[in-house]
Amino acid sequence: MNRTYEVMFIVRPDMAEEDLDKLISTLETAVTSTNGTVKSVEKMGKRRLAYVVGRFHDGMYVLLTVEGGGGLIHELERRLRVSEPVIKFLTVRIDEEQKRLDKIKKLRDARKKASAAPAAAATPEGGETAPVTA
Amino acid sequence: MAEEMRAPGAATESSTPSEGQGPGQGQGQSHGHRPGPRGPRPGGPGGPGGREGGRKYFRRKKVCKFCVEKIENINYKDVRLLAQFVAESGKIVPRRLTGVCTPHQRRLSSAIKQARNIALLPFAGRAN
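The joint structure predicted for all components is written out below.
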């Protein structure tokens, strides 16, 4: 039960700051009530949308990282769908991707250490393609 | 994808390339245009394909940007990185033009599609 999800949603731009905070805290309580944990909340601010969404040209982006089971996301998305100020949302599962990135990082660090120990010259990995002339 | 201009007499459009053995005689109109079994008909660059003003052979000098700079995390959130691989019309640029390797192109493509869904990139039109 350690799936990590990233939920990004867009809120209509003419929403007040405290209403947005209220909305976020409602979502957080929904998360904790289903035995999940909120890892981070990031308000990315107002951005211009790439296309018109529900008559709006701008929107406030919010990024929510949560950890929990699949039922948690079901509940969260249901809330986002019915809440009027939210105009779009996207949920991405990131724990597998995170595992892959960590593995690569570990591999790279191990290789760096292995090559830094015997050789004095710090050329990290040997997998770099030679720079080519355009 | 060099399209071979068949002789006007040969009406059948078989999907097999110019093998002069069986189909050549079967079609009954062997003009002798066919260069024989698997004849050397490069008709342009063999690797990239697609004639772009008569390019020379194998212009595969472009390297994968992600492999070179060791960028592993291709996220839908970094729009500036993704926008480099999106054309003016909003389309995803094919990897034969950008030189991206296949696994990275696949990840890039799904990241671009996710970004489009969350209105960070447009589906069509110029990205502002």
